[in-house]
Amino acid sequence: MVGQVIRASSPQGRFAAGAALLDGRVLMGVEAYGKHLFHRFEGLGDRLHVHLGLYGTFVSGSVPAPDPRGALRLRMIADGHYVDLRGPTRCELLTAGERRELLARLGPDPLRPSADPEPARQRIVRSKTPIGALLMDQAVLAGVGNVYRAEVLFRAGIAPTRPGTAMSDLEVATMWSDLRHLMRAGVRTGRIVTTAREHRDHRRGPARDEDRFYVYRRTDLPCRICGTPIRTAEMAARKVYWCPRCQAR
DNA sequence: GCAAAATGTCAAG
DNA sequence: TTGACCTTTTGCA
């Protein structure tokens, strides 16, 4: 929709004032930092800031858009397409200063080509906090969530409970490049798949849903590598999953 | 029909 | 660390 005049509305009403400000403006660009999305509009200093949170979703399609149903926070229409936003934890207009403050609280985002992992490495190796909690901290790394935390630790063979201080520089560097690789694949395909082809039951074609992860949401199921039942526990307010044998270190 | 869970964050204590 | 919040889907009765 970039370059198009956007028709914006908030059928639910919670973002009615904001939508009215956006309506009729040209969308100039859209950018993501970690889990935060920013839209820039012509002639408007503020930017639209969207954070989906746990259950926010964008749904898009070709016009005509279906009649608004349920709680539809924001609908944008341009160039024969609509984009519906439901359930976000944030949908607001931010001034340049507010945006700067928000970005200042974020660690490097593995998806951004220019990101420098060094600040993340320093925070990790200087912290006694478990690596499973550090990976969820957006001030350490921006964009990593509960799926990537569990999966990247499995792929590295590292227990989520390991303190940051017990992480080597090489292990941190390896996790960073693995996150970069996995998250880019996620952007490219629109879904998260962290299993190597040879570790899926069906090795040809796109991964089936139940084949996408090594440990995430696989409590008590056998580890794909060693058969040991996958364990789960709360860490950093979310459930973390790991294989007690493959991630014994 | 209702509870619980879900790729998350923040304020309060 | 806990509870609140945003909304939909799924599983159970």
- The percentage helix is 10-25%
> Based on the structure, what is the oligomeric state of the protein chains?
single chain
Mean pLDDT: 93
Series of H and E elements: EHEEEEEEEHHHHHEE
Which class of secondary structure composition applies to the elements?
Answer: alpha+beta
Q: Low-confidence parts, pLDDT < 50 over ≥5 residues?
A: none
**What characterizes the major β-sheet?**
4 strands, antiparallel
Q: Count of helices? A: 6
Can you list the strand order of the major beta sheet? 1-6-7-5
Tertiary shape? globular
Percent range for β-strand residues: 15-25%
Tell me the number of strands. Answer: 10
Amino- and carboxy-terminal Cα gap: 48 Å
Radius of gyration, rounded? 20 Å
